[in-house]
Each structure stands twice: as C-alpha cells, then as structure tokens.
Write a structure and sequence with these properties.
alpha/beta; three-stranded antiparallel β-sheet; 290 residues; DNA-binding; Arc Repressor Mutant, subunit A; 3 domains; 23% strand; D-Maltodextrin-Binding Protein, domain 2
Length: 290
C-alpha cells in the first residue's frame, strides 16, 4: 500500500466510476483496476461491489475510505510543514544593545522575531549604548539598538523605534522640584563621558547660557542615576533608563519642557540591510510588538 494507491482509491470511492477516475487521475482503466485489486489482496477483503451498471463501496471500503482520507490529509500536512522548514530562515544574527534596552524594548521585539523565525539563533551582547554605532561599523554585530544622531555615518541604515525623552533628575534629599530652584553655580552636574545624552545636555546648557559645574563624567546613563541617587549632583538621563533603574525611588524628576528627545532605533550597515536575516529583523512590526 502506498499514498498513490490511496489517492486512486479515494477518488474512485467518491466518483464510483472507473472511467472517470482513470481519466481524472491520468491512469489507464486497467492500471486502476490492478491498483484496487492489489489493495483488496493486501487487506484480504473486497472494497467495491461491481456489476455491469454501478460501483458501490462495501462496508470494508467505507472503513478504508475513513482511514485513507485521514492518512492523505496528514501526508499533505507533513509535506507542507517540511517545505516550510526547508524555506525557513536559518543561521545566527548578532545584536548589540544597552542593558536598559534589553529590558525595555528587546523582549517584545525578540518574541515576535522568534515566533516568525524559530530557526534563527540570536546572539545578544550588551554594553554602553554610546558604543552601538562603532559595534556595527566594526562589524562586531549585525544589528544594534542605537540612537540616531546628526552625525550618524551615511553608510548606516537606521529604522526608528520611538523617540526617547530626557529627564533631569536630582537627589530626593535635596528636595528640588523646579528648574528655578537650581543654582547652576552651586549644584554640581553628573555628565556622561560621551554619547547623545552628553551632546543634547550640552546643547541645552548652551541655549540657556548655563556653564555646568561638572562633578564627574561617567560611562553609561545607568551610572548617572546611581551617582545622582548618591547625592553627587544632578543630571540628564533618558526616561527609559530611569524607568528601569532600581535607584529610581532615590531621585526626583525635575520638569524640563524644552530639551529634545532622541530617536531610538535599529541600525545596520547599508550594505547588509537586505541580507535575509537582517531584512527579516528590520521588517518586524515593531509598533505591535511593543
């Protein structure tokens, strides 16, 4: 018994006409008769009642029809599944992002990607977000969650995720709640060593004629929250960093309406943008993922 024989049997069980089935299934009537005879020999029973005027299924034939219908359905499903596996994306993709982004943005993104492409392995590296661009440029990763800046290299492709606002924070014990309470000559500032937050903060200071009294320059926005919580000064940090910081309850947010947010997104080399794995990542519906 094979699947071709079951296909012929199924068609004949439906048409109940040897000539019609032979024509529809591209076999000769004699070949069809031999197939049915072989099935009956294998099963040790008659499958059809035949006379000069009609063909009808026997009780055994009805039982085989139920079996063959299910078997052929499962066979077709198996072939479809195997084809999907063959066509599915395979391989590894590397992604760089900050620890904060791995908590705030990455889970929903990866969940959607894994659902669509379960055969792809993801290698995740976390670190200072200011290094994202360099990691992509030096091809230490395929993709990075990065911040778009005015001087972003033209050989990079950027796909936006969302605009991230900056907030000014102060130690809770200092009881500062308004900008007007800050004496910029006395209150020290904690600044990032490099990166977009540093650029935007200095731009804001310049626009307001403030020369910040910098207490320390630190690596990473998370470190700014910690330094401010320890009463080392005040500082600007991305709101998403503060929202995911264990030190958030030790600082106070001071409203600043006119400081620009920065665009957060996925970036890769322009030359790698259309590679299958990277293209699949960039085509995710990020809005629905989050």
């Amino acid at each position: 018994m094979d699947f071709r024989s079951l296909q012929l049997f199924n068609h004949l069980a439906t048409s109940l006409h040897f000539g019609d089935t032979a024509q529809a299934m591209y076999v000769s009537p004699s070949t069809l008769s031999r197939v049915i005879q072989r099935l009956e020999d294998e099963l040790g029973c008659s499958l059809f009642k035949r006379d000069n005027r009609k063909v009808a299924l026997t009780h055994s034939g009805h039982k085989l029809l139920a079996f063959s219908t299910q078997a052929l359905k499962e066979w077709q499903q198996l072939k479809a599944n195997l084809k999907e596996d063959e066509d599915a994306l395979q391989g590894e993709i590397s992604l760089f992002c900050s620890v904060t982004a791995s908590q705030s943005h990455l889970p929903a993104i990866l969940r959607q990607f894994r659902q669509q492409h379960p055969g792809v392995d993801i290698r995740l590296v976390t670190g200072d977000p200011a290094l994202s661009i360099d990691k992509v440029k030096q091809q230490e990763c395929d993709l990075a969650i990065a911040i778009h800046t005015p001087d972003m290299p033209t050989d990079l492709y950027f796909s936006p995720l969302e605009d991230v606002p900056l907030v000014l924070i102060a130690p809770k014990e200092w009881r500062l709640t308004q900008l007007s309470q800050i004496d910029w000559t006395q209150h020290q500032v904690v600044m990032p060593e490099h990166g977009p937050t540093r650029r935007i903060a200095y731009h804001w200071f310049a626009e307001h004629g403030v020369r910040p009294n910098v207490y320390a320059s630190v690596g990473g926005n998370e470190a700014i929250v910690s330094m401010v919580a320890l009463e080392c000064g005040i500082g600007f940090v991305p709101k998403v960093v503060l929202d995911h910081s264990s030190m958030a309850n030790s600082v106070t947010q001071i409203p600043v309406k006119d400081i620009e947010p920065y665009p957060l997104g996925l970036c890769c080399l322009q030359t790698k943008q259309h590679e299958p794995l990277i293209d699949a990542f960039l085509k995710l519906d990020i809005a629905s993922a989050r």
